[in-house]
Fold each of these.
Amino acid sequence: MSSRGFVLRWTVVLGFAAVLAASAQGNDRRGAWGPVFDWGLPERLTTPIHASVVVTRPGGQGPLVGQVFTHGYYGTTWSYLWNPETGVFTLIDFFPDDSARECGDGRPDAMTSLFCSGHCVLADGQLLLAGGDLMHEDQNCPLGYAFAGAYYSHTINPLDPSPTYVRAGDMNQGRWYPTNTMLGDGSVVTFSGLTECASCDDNGFPISPLNTDVERYNPATRTWSIISQRALPLYPWMHLLSNGRVFYAGPGRDSHRFNPNNGTWSFVDFFDHPYRSYGTSVLYPAGPDQVLVIGGACCGDFATNTTEIIDLSLSSPQWRPGPAMRTGRTQLNAVLLPDGSVLAVGGRSDFDFGGPQAQPVYRAERLDPFARRQRWKRMASMSRPRMYHSTAVLLPDGRVLSAGGTVAEGYPLDEKNAQIFSPPYLFKGARPVITSAPEEVTYGASFSVVTAEADQISSVVLIRPSSVTHAFNMEQRYVPVTFASRGGSLEVWAPSGGNVAPPGYYMLFILNRDRVPSTAAFIRLH
């Protein structure tokens, strides 16, 4: 493991100050984007295809700091920790395992990487990565090898002073494009992905069997076990519900609930759109167990601007139309903000792939589920295209990092850069300040949050930090919590259990009567 720091001079640090000082008309309605900056060290710039917000303690002491962990693709994976407070990048090298097994037909492995893995943050703050690339030599393929799923898994602990990748247990089969979902007890279930036995047909298109094993990871033993079987699309949209079931929301239109305790599946409903390739879905903050699916493309048509909503708390849930976006999008990212709104970032308005010229969407959109009239509102436009392999995450200070993106028709260069969006709430006056909050909280317990604005606070929310790739965020969830003002502090009650908020680190935000959020304090819920 090597580690080096690089300060982005004025680009991020002074750039943020410039945004906050800006008086351009409309920022309080449309927000504003900061300057574009390079991602990584100058000699090792990379495209952040995978991004997770993780908790660190720089120097091994002092307060917890949220940093963005990213890794790219192909061969040796260049991973970075980026500190949004200082602009410093720390490089973490991943070297392929020498013990990779052959597919069974004698083809040697060409290379291995963490590209196209599934990932989530465990209850103790470690990042779990399931699968990735295990490429086999195949002369039928344009690059001379076939993309295949790696069967191994790794963890990395950002709280370590010098974090390194550690091999965890092997899965039964390979997984390329899997989804990791944390359960209420802290275990993780992984779904879908392509297996390690891949090849290409005579036209150069990859052929690889779909992994139908549903496997559960036990963090205590670092091992996997098969708990069910199900054929699901790659990177399926999976959401943990408050009753402990896991909901499959897309991109296929047939929705199901999965019981991880007995491995059974139950059909729920079909959504209206035939397929939502590289659309996305989120747990909708409008109410418990509501899911919103957004955009996507299908069947040779341009990207749809439609959305659909389902309320899984009902006895007979059904999909219903949601507010239509201003622009159709595929390959987008959706980010949950502290005020409960949903921010749609990037994507393209034509096809998921192909076409004579890609049509990137630069303007962001925001949906407020608590507004009297629910509709998507146009936000400010970004400077660079963010399409396939782009990522977007909520930062602890309430801004949104949008990064990456790879080659597309008419756009021949990878986007080895990022840009930060300041939502409208950052231009609506002074922000409340959290003076102190506990670092650990148990389920159902009350705890104190000290703030001088206690009598002005309208809501307190926990947001699980993001872990996103390929247009789907496997981790983010918005959890409002009950509170009461007690003079110069707030008494806050933690969620009742892990199905509502799986164990681990959360960003705690307090919002004033204008719905302006504080900078987050990190707390560990267990």
Amino acid sequence: GVCNLRLMNAVADWILEEGTLVLLKPQEIANMVWAYATLGVNNPLLMAAVADWLSMDGATLFEFKPQEIGNVLWAFATLGVDNADLMVVVMRHITQEGRLAEFHAQEVANTVWAFSKLAVFDSHLLNDVATWVLQDGRLALFKPQEISNMLWAFATADSHKPDLMAAVAALLLQEGALSKFKPQEIANTVWAFATLRIRNSNLMATIARHVLQGCVLAEFNSQDIANTVWA
């Protein structure tokens, strides 16, 4: 994207000064904070205002679709904005109000990644997500990045979910599955297994063979290689 800092700051000032935030629709709020995060522009006053608005009334979040909730969380985590009140409100909203049933794979992955990125760990949320993923064949709907982000989140939270990890391992062992994974996604996945101290010799051998075939290893950067050999 093209980042014009003066423009981004001017937009933030306009929203804050004119009280425009309360007039924005949920999708507009989600798109706005997504844009700031994508461009790496952290406007503390704007992000604080968004957090306050969403935390003010629990009913407000019911107006947000799962994708919008996921995008908001992703934006806060990407910018490293840790707002405890917002995270608690969103966490309760997802776990206690039954909203998780409305989520799709990407939204679930973004949500748990965001919480772990901000070091906000909640066993109820992680338990609910693990259960949700294992139901109705949902894991097969996850893209490689979503799988690796989800596993990274569970490992970062030191949340052990043997059934989930076994299901992921079985998925990765399917013929051709690893060819869809980018080097970083492979590295994050094996890092998660190692961090959670889950030894799956068959999976590790399969990944090793995949990395060593053709030009796969040449696509790895130094961090990917380091994480993979460490795992």
Amino acid sequence: MNNIKLCPHFEAAFKLLGKRWNGLIIRSLLKGAKRFSDIQEIIPNLSARMLTERFKELEKEGIIARKVYAETPVRIEYELTEKGKDLEKSMDEIQKWAEKWT
């Protein structure tokens, strides 16, 4: 049997990006900051509870940032960090692959 060593970084990246909804959330933020309701419109089958959970996870991982504006009413936007923006080329390649093979 071949002893193939898998890179733990690669595995961790796929664990995060492969989690349901994460890829779509990241993809929707590539064009700029969005509000919670904007993401819900873009991904209609994603529940508010799950979106909140995914936002917290992606924020903890440094992929997105939550920006609170001191306005009345309070406005909150989510945007990709530099780390998140760095996924754009990879996401574009996955999109091309998906269009060809799925």
Amino acid sequence: MTGLAFRSGRGHDGPPVQNSTVRLIVANVARVGGSRRRRAARLVAKPAGGTVAAAGAAHFDPLSFDRGPSEPALLDVTIGANLADTAHTYGAREALVDIAAGRRWSYAELRAAVRGLATGLLGAGVGAGDRVGIWAPNRWEWVLVQYATAEIGAILVTVNPAYRTRELEYALRQSGVALVIAAPRHKTSDYAAMLADVAPRCPALREVVLLESRRWEELSGAPADPAALAHRAAALDGSDPINIQYTSGTTGYPKAATLTHRNILNNGYLVGELLEYTARDRICVPVPFYHCFGMVLGNLAATSHGACIVIPAPGFEPAATLRAVQAERCTSLYGVPTMFIAELGLPDFAGYELGSLRTGIMAGSPCPVE
């Protein structure tokens, strides 16, 4: 993704590979003694037409290693464990603000709500590895579903709010979604009607839950079951797949990218490190949650640092975004160039108090200096 953080980053260069005859037999990257090394990696020089034995003195068995910085260390925990750590440390601090809904959560409250929904999903028969779809614009329920599925090892399938029936059916069928949580509608899209249309053609789909429905209230209002959640958490690992995101499908249907706890948690965490996030930061996230920009660089960057997620509106509205920055004293703002241009183009732009901003991310397309 083309992007620009409003801070200079850190990088490193490594030596190029010199010998094209060298085969890397095992390449599981792990941290050993504070540096990145390849665990049990053997490098074998194999002459053309020869055998490994014929290589003789060219056979090497020692661990290989990557050159470069080893700090900050990668997080080797699940998303649920990371949220638990953050809630333990910053329980009273504000974690989530949904301006349109008029609701706020501290970290202690957010984790309690996540664990309640996670218990509700367990009661609905959602198991580890089951696919749970989320089809909604940016709203507080989206965040709860993101963390509740991670809590129990279900795989969150993020569905683009702009999908039409054909794309929706493809994503649900191709990923094997068992349960969909969806907004009843968004803008001109009647999600409930579209789901009713495609459901008979999605053999894995067992249940559709509409936000604001009684069924949603049952799932999200369930009291947390600590024993059941602890049992499930004990079986989870950072390398487990936890998210399926669909690409734009530049040459055909959208393509599914499967991501693990470790993938997306460290992506968000390291972006937060680059932007020097702390628990004092408040991140305005007008970019969509269904995309990694919103759910990873926004939500996970925030919760891995104890920062606050601010949702200015369900969909992008330039004025609503700037009002949110002003009212919530946001320190960071995200967007693609078109969004920033729309904000700068507001007739009353000069009237907004935006002095709290110190950083942010512009990404998604070439970022003009202007």
